[in-house]
Amino acid sequence: MSQLFMFEKPLGMRDTLPELYEAKSQVQDAIESEMKLWGYQFMDTPALEYYDTVGTASAILDQQLFKLLDNQGHTLVLRPEMTTPIARVAASKLLQENLPLRLAYSASVFRAQQREGGRPAEFEQIGVEAIADESVSADGEVIALMVSALREAGIKSFQISVGHIAFVQELFLQILGTEERAQALTKFLYEKNFVGYREHVKSLNLSSIDKQRLLDFLKLRGGEEVIERALCLIENEKGREAIQKLKQLWDIVVDYGEQANLKLDLTLVSHMSYYTGILFEVYADKVGFPIGNGGRYNLLLEKFGKTTGATGFALRLDRILEALGELKKEVTTECVLFSGERRKEAFQLAKAKRGQGIKTLLQDIQGVRNIDEFTGQFAEVTFLIGKAGKGS
User: Fold this and answer.
1) Structural domains in the chain?
2) Is 111 annotated as a binding residue?
3) What are the binding positions for L-histidine in this chain (predicted)?
4) What is the pLDDT of residues 133-142, one digit of tens each?
């Protein structure tokens, strides 16, 4: 093992300097306020969970989990996402009467990276979970809330791609016959390797009609017209039911007036294996990865002893900041610059300003080498220098 440099950080970990921290706080506050307006209650869970509970139930790959042992020999993990810990809490403490729950969170999650490649191993998610509500209205609500939250954060241009994992599964099983063959083809969708998908389909031992159906499947992207085209491709009842739910969802989003941001993409699949129905990703300009994703997970809570459906979404704060670009820096802090003779007066003045809600910094002049450079960073500077009552 090579010697670590003095300032080296673990792979994928980053420092957050004051300017970025302030920008992140502003975005976070705007999103949290919007979620609260929609009736969602914030909660938190431990950063450390047991591997045998949250670790195994999570949809994150095992090799991406940060693992450690406690002093009793139990394997722990740093939480890799927030949906599974919240499902644990909801099943054990909050669902006693099986009433719908609207929960929200803002927390750091941890996923180990094989190679950093610019990707963080720790990042912040902010999201919601609508639990014990199996209606399509709940799916529509979380999508509409996500749209509203992104606008409040300052994101002007974005698109939400919506699909249904059950439609993909049923279509592939119907044509290919086995789970193994269906999963092999699904992998191309997850990797968004559509060239590889087409080549794989051409190599399959299928009729020309079935091959064409699998190739036509890639065209199921667009507006409401996609629904009719999908119904023409699928023959079994479960697959048709999935499409009908997407039709209901589209109508609900239309009622919210947010269909301009929505695109149906029935080729959409996710690495989050617990999704069972409607799922979605949101993309913004200038960012090459989704800034958020979500969907319905009707089986996850069964792992914690409760049989009920749920849906939700998570937004990536770091990617939202990337989409926003360079934020306009507002200089709002004032400064009271003082000499030793007027220290008490300076303390009292700063206290009074803070009492009025004004951000105020105190600075002894003896600690400043370049007065002009120092004072240039404040909205206003009050000089209390020299004898009391003779500020200059």
Assistant:
1) 10-157+285-329 (3.30.930.10), 158-261 (no CATH), 334-384 (3.40.50.12590)
2) yes
3) 81-83, 111, 125, 129, 274-275
4) 999 999 999 9
